[in-house]
């Protein structure tokens, strides 16, 4: 029987329009804007200045603390300025503008397509290289990977879970990567296992990707300790805690990290980036981005250099459809609408969804009818209607006691609400306030 | 009369008398001695419980007044000087006169001045909108127009202008409690000195972007040109982060800054119309 997580979950229409589209390499842009904060943690510190010549793969911003990561140039050319520009939220963030000239790579990067299977480095060295290569969780949360691989004192990882779930509707970037780079992902998994010192890895894939399940199952024969677990299609199975529950049956306690139950979760994209960083010496400066939507002429999967403007991707997918209502960075459930087409692709951009006007509109907000659907779909076992009210009335102490910080912001509550109440909006607001409250208490 | 009834009455009377004696001694033992002046001061306060004084309601403010040795730091903005002098006479302290204050809105980014670049359809509160993104126009500092200040005002002193979507202060109703100041996530509202006849001269902009960027987002933005700073004869204007600021304690309402502002970011309110001299016509009309 297919496994899935135990509480909550929804199943929105999948709409995987681009699942049969091969990954295409997007032509080099003319300019890029590379933000220095593309990850959770402290922003990196720029180490280049106006007028500097940079090459592809060169460090342009240095990690500033342990929970931070390096940023590499994704293009070769001249730094035009180090300045602030609006990110997807419209607020300005620091970043580096580079005008592209040619495509000259830093020496030592292996640009060939050959598979390097032999692992010649030991565990600690792998972690160090991952840190240097600026690898972050590519599922969307962008948590620096090297931090995950070093468990806190007294805890030990037992199993590595590889997230190939891709439960967000529309997105297909992980799916295509699994089909096209299966061996590379497998080697990447071996590297991650070695770095963590575990001998078991499970790849979780939802049942709507039978081709990927079949292919990776075949590959498992060649690689020790790796197996594939097919999962029932259920959103948000790609959430870390949900995936652990689905595959191992264990439940991560409230407020704890997955390592508390001996698990570490990494995305398939991250496994591929790890392979490239260690076997090919290539830092993380490009990623697969799905460009999709019902009105899009050519829904596609592109290999994109970080810093490329959104407008270029849309152009490559056939241009902006006329009745576009919203452009969403990420999937329809957790993604955010962007306010401008100059917003760059970052390490965490898994997709770009162009929503048509009629499907993007929110329904009129009505009164809560106490149907409790939000409670039954919440995968964290919370009571969203209550958390929303507490956010509205600004009763944050109570919200904290009601475990508001456990919310993974999957949006299942807002999706399912028959009164179209903006549950997640208020919960996010409450989370921000409660988070600030907790931080000020620690000081 | 049956004997049972007699017993009942006697028993109850004895219990009642015993309880009265116990309660009397308990009340003596645990008596809370409260300064009677707290009640008097509380009585003298407006009873709005708005929190404008910085305390949790009028009672808490009354307690603080009674405890205080001087009233310099304590002020009831709703009651103003009159209330405070009453309080002072109850307590036998000296009343400290404070300038009455009033709220000023520091954004004039109406739809005409500030074109929309995107639209927001999430939960319509300023707090949520500003936590999600910078706003519907190119200006990340401006008014969002969802009326958190309007909701916060207990005195009906704020109205949302139906056309511009920007709040307006009704000066005569505003008591300067500061609830709107706290409610505005963009920090657009400021309590400033109340001028005679409710006259106002204020830099109605909080945009800290460089001039070009600010101007592109909004035609009445302060571009940080420093013209007003140079013009002001009273040193009331300071420049910081590409933004001019008029200190209301120094401002003498001469309006020279209004005349030199090239974008019309400095606005004047409640003044009689100016005499327009034919040779130096106002160049400050905002260009639209």
UniProtKB/TrEMBL annotation, chain A:
Cofactors required: [4Fe-4S] cluster
GO molecular function (one): electron transfer activity
Cofactor note: Binds 2 [4Fe-4S] clusters per subunit.
Domain of life: Bacteria
BP terms from Gene Ontology: electron transport chain
Gene3D superfamilies membership: 3.30.70.20, NADH-ubiquinone oxidoreductase 51kDa subunit (3.40.50.11540)
SUPFAM superfamilies, sorted: alpha-helical ferredoxin (SSF46548), Nqo1 FMN-binding domain-like (SSF142019)
Gene Ontology terms: cellular component: plasma membrane
Presence of keyword Metal-binding: yes
All residue ranges annotated as the 4Fe-4S ferredoxin-type domain in the record: 358-381, 397-427
Documented EC number(s): 7.-.-.-
Subcellular location: Cell membrane
Subunit annotation: The complex is composed of six subunits: RnfA, RnfB, RnfC, RnfD, RnfE and RnfG.
Function, as annotated: Part of a membrane-bound complex that couples electron transfer with translocation of ions across the membrane.
Protein name: Ion-translocating oxidoreductase complex subunit C
Organism for this UniProt entry: Draconibacterium sediminis
Gene behind this protein: rnfC
UniProtKB/TrEMBL annotation, chain B:
Positions contributing to [4Fe-4S] cluster 1 binding: 50, 53, 58, 76
Entry binding sites for [4Fe-4S] cluster 2: 139, 143, 149, 184
MF terms in GO: 4 iron, 4 sulfur cluster binding; electron transfer activity; metal ion binding
Stretches assigned to the 4Fe-4S ferredoxin-type domain: 165-194, 211-241, 242-271
PROSITE patterns tied to this protein: 4FE4S (PS51656), 4FE4S_FER_1 (PS00198), 4FE4S_FER_2 (PS51379)
Region (Hydrophobic): 1-27
Pfam families according to UniProt: Fer4_7 (PF12838), FeS (PF04060)
Record's keyword terms, sorted: 4Fe-4S, Cell membrane, Electron transport, Iron, Iron-sulfur, Membrane, Metal-binding, Repeat, Translocase, Transmembrane, Transmembrane helix, Transport
Cofactor(s) essential for the protein: [4Fe-4S] cluster
Annotated ranges, domain 4Fe-4S: 33-93
Enzyme kind, highest EC tier: translocase
Enzyme Commission numbers on file: 7.-.-.-
Cofactor note: Binds 3 [4Fe-4S] clusters.
Annotated InterPro entries: 4Fe-4S_dom, 4Fe4S_Fe-S-bd, 4Fe4S_Fe_S_CS, 4Fe4S_Ferredoxin_RnfB, Elect_transpt_cplx_RnfB/RsxB
Presence of keyword Repeat: yes
Compartment annotation: Cell membrane
GO cellular component, one term: plasma membrane
TM segment ranges: 6-27
GO biological process, one term: electron transport chain
Function: Part of a membrane-bound complex that couples electron transfer with translocation of ions across the membrane.
Subunit structure: The complex is composed of six subunits: RnfA, RnfB, RnfC, RnfD, RnfE and RnfG.
Protein's name according to its UniProt entry: Ion-translocating oxidoreductase complex subunit B
């Amino acid at each position: 029987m297919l496994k899935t997580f135990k509480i909550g979950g929804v199943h929105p229409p999948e709409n995987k329009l681009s699942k049969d589209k091969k990954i295409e390499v997007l032509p080099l842009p003319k300019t890029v804007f590379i933000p220095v904060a593309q990850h959770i943690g402290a922003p990196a510190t720029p180490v280049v200045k106006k007028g500097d010549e940079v090459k592809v793969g060169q460090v342009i911003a240095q990690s500033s603390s342990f929970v931070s990561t390096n940023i590499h140039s994704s293009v070769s050319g001249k730094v035009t300025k180090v300045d602030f520009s609006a990110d997807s939220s419209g607020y300005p963030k620091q970043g580096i503008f580079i005008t592209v000239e040619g495509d000259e790579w830093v020496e030592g990067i292996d640009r060939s397509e050959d598979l390097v299977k032999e692992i010649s480095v030991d565990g600690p060295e792998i972690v160090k290289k991952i840190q240097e290569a600026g690898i972050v969780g590519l599922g969307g949360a962008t948590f620096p990977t090297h931090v995950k691989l070093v468990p806190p004192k007294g805890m030990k990882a037992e199993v590595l879970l590889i997230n190939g779930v891709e439960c967000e509707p529309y997105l297909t970037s992980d799916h295509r990567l699994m089909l096209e780079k299966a061996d590379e992902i497998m080697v990447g998994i071996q590297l991650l296992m070695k770095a963590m010192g575990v001998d078991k890895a499970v790849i979780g894939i939802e049942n709507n990707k039978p081709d990927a399940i079949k292919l990776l199952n075949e590959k498992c024969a060649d690689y020790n300790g790796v197996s594939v677990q097919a999962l029932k299609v259920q959103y948000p199975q790609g959430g870390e805690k949900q995936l652990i529950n689905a595959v191992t049956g264990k439940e991560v306690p409230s407020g704890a990290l997955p390592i508390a139950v001996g698990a570490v979760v990494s995305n398939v994209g991250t496994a591929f980036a790890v392979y490239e960083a260690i076997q090919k010496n290539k830092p993380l400066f490009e990623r697969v981005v799905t460009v999709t939507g019902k009105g899009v002429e050519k829904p596609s999967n592109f290999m994109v250099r970080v810093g490329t403007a959104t407008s270029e991707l849309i152009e490559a997918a056939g241009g902006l459809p006329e009745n576009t209502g919203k452009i969403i960075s990420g999937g329809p459930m957790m993604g955010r609408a962007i306010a401008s087409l100059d917003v760059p692709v970052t390490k965490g951009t898994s997709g770009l969804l162009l929503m048509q006007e009629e499907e993007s509109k929110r329904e009129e907000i009505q009164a809560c009818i106490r149907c409790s659907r939000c409670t039954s779909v919440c995968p964290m076992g919370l009571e969203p209607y209550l958390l929303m009210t507490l956010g509205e009335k600004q009763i944050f102490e109570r919200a904290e006691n009601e475990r508001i910080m456990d919310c993974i912001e999957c949006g299942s509550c807002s999706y399912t609400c028959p009164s179209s109440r903006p549950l997640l909006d208020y919960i996010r607001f409450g989370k921000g306030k409660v988070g600030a409250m907790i931080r000020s208490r620690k000081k | 009369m049956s004997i049972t009834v007699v017993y009942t009455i006697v028993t109850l009377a004895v219990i009642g008398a015993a309880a009265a004696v116990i309660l009397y001694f308990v009340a003596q033992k645990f008596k809370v001695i409260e300064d009677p002046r707290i009640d008097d001061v509380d009585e003298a306060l407006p009873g709005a419980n708005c929190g404008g004084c910085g305390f949790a309601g009028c009672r808490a403010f009354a307690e603080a007044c009674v405890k205080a040795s001087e009233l310099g730091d304590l002020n009831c903005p709703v009651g103003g000087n009159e209330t405070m002098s009453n309080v002072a006479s109850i307590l036998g302290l000296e009343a400290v006169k404070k300038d009455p204050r009033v709220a000023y809105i520091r954004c004039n980014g109406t739809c005409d001045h500030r074109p929309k670049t995107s639209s927001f359809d999430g939960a319509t509160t300023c707090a949520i909108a500003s936590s999600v993104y910078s706003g519907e126009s190119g200006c990340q500092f401006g008014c969002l127009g969802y009326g958190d200040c309007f909701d916060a005002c207990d005195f009906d002193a704020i109205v949302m202008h139906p056309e511009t979507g920007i709040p307006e202060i009704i000066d005569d109703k505003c008591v300067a409690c500061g609830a709107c100041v706290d409610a505005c996530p963009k920090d657009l509202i400021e309590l400033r000195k109340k001028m005679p006849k409710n006259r106002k001269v204020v830099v109605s902009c909080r945009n800290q972007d460089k001039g070009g960027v600010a101007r592109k987002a909004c035609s009445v933005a302060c571009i940080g040109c420093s013209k007003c700073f140079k013009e002001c004869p009273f040193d009331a204007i300071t420049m910081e982060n590409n933004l001019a600021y008029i200190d209301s304690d120094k401002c003498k309402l001469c309006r020279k800054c209004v005349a030199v502002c090239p974008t019309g970011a400095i606005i004047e309110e409640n003044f009689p119309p100016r005499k327009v001299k034919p040779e130096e016509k106002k160049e400050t009309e905002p260009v639209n």
